Amino acid sequence: MKYTQLGRTGLKVSRLVLGTMNFGPQTGESESHALMDTALDAGINFFDTANVYGWGENKGRTEEIIGTWFAQGGGRREKTVLATKVYGNMAAEGDPWPNYDRLSALNIRRAVDASLKRLNTDYIDVYQFHHVDRRTPFEEIWQAIEVLIQQGKILYAGSSNFPGWKIAQANEAAKRNGRLGLVSEQCLYNLAERRAELEIIPAAEEYGLGVIPWSPLHGGLLGGAIRKSAQSGRTATGRSADALANSSVRAQVQAYEDLLDKHGLEPGEVALAWLLTRPGVTGPIVGPRTAEQLASALRAVELELGEEVLAGLDEVFPGPGPAPEAFAW
What we know:
Layout: E1 3-5, E2 12-14, E3 17-19, H1 29-41, E4 46-48, H2 61-70, H3 76-79, E5 81-86, H4 105-119, E6 124-129, H5 138-150, E7 154-160, H6 164-176, E8 182-188, H7 200-207, E9 210-214, H8 225-232, H9 238-244, H10 247-262, H11 267-276, E10 285-286, H12 291-302, H13 307-316, H14 325-328
Parallel strand pairs: 3-4, 3-10, 4-5, 5-6, 6-7, 7-8, 8-9
Antiparallel strand pairs: 1-2
Helix pairs in contact: 1-2, 2-4, 4-5, 6-7, 10-13, 11-12
C-alpha cells in the first residue's frame, strides 16, 4: 500500500479509502468484518462511514458493524484512521421531532456521542459534515467542533459535497478564530464526472484539503458495464442502466472500454488509478461487496498509466478545464 498526508495535516493515510456504505444493507456483519480485516492486512488504514448508513429503520447499523469489529481487538482501532459524518436525520422513523439533523451545535453534540457509542470507540479521527447546512453559521459549527476537539472526541474536521465557495467560507471563518478548519473534502469525482475540477478541487488545493472522491466508478459505469453485460447476458441495472440508455453516454463508455481493451487493462482498475494521478486527490473511496472487488481495487494502487492511455482517457472523457476560463471566455 502507498500512503500520503491528508491535505495539509501530519496524518498519514492510505491511497485507497475503504467505504462501508454497503455494510449492513448489502453485506452482512461477518462478511463486513472479513472485508475490513482483508483491507487492514493489505495496508488500507483509512475507513469511511456515516451515521445514517444502514438507512431507513436501520440508520446507524453500519457504524455498529464497525464497532463490533473494533471490539475484537488485535490493534484494529489503533491501526485505523476512522472517518464518519454528521448531518442526516437520525430521529426515529416517522418522528418529526426537531434538532436531530443538520449542523447545529446541539445536533453535532448529540450526533457525535451517538456515533462514538455505535462505533465502540472514544474518538473519531476525521468528523465530516455530510452536506452544507445553509441554516447554521460556520461560527456556530466551529465553536461546536472546538469543544469536541478539547474533549478529545474528534481530531480533525472535514466536509462532504461542499462547493468551492463553501470550502473557502468555512476555512476563512475557522482562520478568523485561530482554528485549523477543514482538512478534507469528499466529493463526487471520476472520469465521467469531472465538474469538481472547476471549483471544488482548486479550492481544496488552495486551502490544503485532501480530496476524497466518492463513486469513483460512477455507479459501476466505469467498471466495464458494457463488457460485463455482454459476458453475462444480463443487462446493466441501477444507475448504469439509466446512463447507458442514453446513446451518447453508451458510445462514450464503449470508446472507454475499447481503449482499455487495446492496452489490456481492466476498466475498474484504470478508473481508480486515474484518480490517483489527479492533483489534490488523497485517495478514492472504494466500497467492495466481495473480496474480489477489494482485490481489484488494491491492484489499482500499483497500476501505472502511460501517457498514451492518459491522453486517450482525456479524449474520451474531456474535463471542463480550469475556472473561470471554462465558462468565462
